[in-house]
Write the structure tokens for this entry.
Amino acid sequence: MGKGKRPIGLKTVFLRFLVVTGAAMAAAGVLWWLGIGILMNMGAVLPAYTAEKNVQTVLQTPEAGIPYYYKWAFFDADGELTARSADMSVQEAQKALQGRNAAHIPYTDYYASRVFEDGRMLILQYDYSVPYGSAWAQNHLPDFQISMFCLLILAWAGVAALFAHRYARLLEGDAQKLTEAVKAIEEERLDIPVAQNARVRELGGALAAIEHLRASLAQSLKKQWEMEQQRSREMAALAHDLKTPLTIIRGNAELLMEEEEMPEAQAIFRSAEHMYGYIERLRAMTMQEKAEDKKQKRDLAEFSEDWKLMGQGLCAPKGLTFEAESAGGTCLVERERLSRAVFNLLDNAARLARSMVRLEVSRSDQEIRIAVEDDGPGFTKEALCRAGELFFTEEKERPRDGHSGLGLAFARQTAQQHGGYLVFENRKNGGASAIIVLPAAEKKRD
């Protein structure tokens, strides 16, 4: 089962465990039995049949001394107890007088008796157990037979635990490799191949499947990234190319506006300005820079004040009421990008609100929430599912204010690049709510 050996099947592992453990337990049993035999040869203990073998001799010559492995009692001709051994109680003596064998755990008591010429009776009580070789050991040490059986059980348990630990380590090693492989995929570390040196064949097959999955995911993500790069380059090139005709259109519109008052020229100029804004947003969305590269620790209260001025500037010309509530603390963000995202939410709310727009910035130990609410018509079911998608808009025709569906998409992308997300909800009392949720960079301090 070393590193360079061929993998073995799971059934073989368990079969080996059973065979090796069984053989080791059998060897422990043999050693246990040999140990008892050695003790008997040394006279430290006596065979279990010793008391039965000598019982008649002891009954015939009790004056020579009754061995310590017997319990005994003398009764007179009237059946009265006259003497007994120290380890035999009166109740046991009376039971012995009845001459019935008494079963109790862990042994069965046997009785033998002799009636003398003068009517006296001697009763011996014994059992089939292994006695110690001396009276002192018999009286002071634990029962030898029970102790030896406990020792055997402990030996077997130790052998089973030892080999269970050994074979468990074999399985744990491969299971750890499986865990590490799955964790690597979960953490998107797809550039590191999965280890293939499993010692159990079935677990090695699972590792091979995970390696195939890793390679497939890596290849798929690579292709997806290349497609995204290509699409971004094409969109950036298209946005750049659109600037040239727009510059011409805007320049001609300015000339017409200078020469004479033409409402048509003013409309063309305004439309060209809107299109410039769309192109700049589109170029920003196709940039592949990561927000983390430009993140800095900022004061959330300072941010909130800037956003409050943005909201007031958007709502005042339309006669809308603007409310703002902010929180303190710091946050780790890209300032310009996040401010543009919040501006897009405020602009979208001001465009659809009937009378009110509200900005609420809150912070907890886990997250920062930037919520923009309005009392407009709210989101439709389709918008709740698709709002934030590139170029998605509910309006079938482009309105004159130039809403293109890029603002919410940019806000969602910004939230995701900061490790957060964008949520769209409808308020209970009417209106819509768009919430940017970002992870808190540090715990809020009191």
The first helix runs from residue 10 to 42.
